[in-house]
Amino acid sequence: MDKFKHKREQELKTVTDMISIYCRDVHKTDGGTLCPECEELLDYVEKRVNNCPRIGEQTLCSECSTHCFAPNRRQKMQQIMRYSGPKLMLRSPVMALRHKLIQWFNTIQNKACNIF
Ligand SMILES: [Zn+2]
User: Fold this and answer.
1) Ligand 1 centroid, distance to 35 Cα (angstroms)
2) 27 alpha carbon – ligand 1 mean position (Å)
3) Of 19, 74, 88, 102, which sits most exposed with the smallest number of CB within 10 A?
4) Residues 25-56: pLDDT tens digits?
5) What whole-number distance in Å separates Cα of residue 18 and Cα of residue 89?
6) Which domain holds residue 19?
7) Ligand 1: distance of its center to the CA of 99 in Å?
8) 103: closest CA among 77, 76, 64, 71?
9) Near ion ligand 1, which residues have CB within 5 Å?
């Protein structure tokens, strides 16, 4: 039994939402389906999330400072998050609060991670 199953699912849901918003607005898709580029990125993120060694910690993969994403994927994901993050937050106040908390935890963690 994967005790982090719920977190993985929640995380993937967030990432999926963010990519959908970005793809719909920026790539002008219909919102129901992703363009091949975003589809491929989502597939990549899914694999990373499912293999994350730090899944039990208070971060989202998309925000984790010891990123397991390849640099170009990471850059792309950051771009998507910058665009879709605020929009997603407007849609869901609970998510906004959660996001703030994660950012706060991350600030603390980043200090430790910089040593490596
Ligand atoms: Zn797209």
Assistant:
1) 4
2) 5
3) 74
4) 999 998 789 999 999 999 998 888 888 777 77
5) 10
6) 5-113
7) 23
8) 64
9) 23, 27, 35, 38
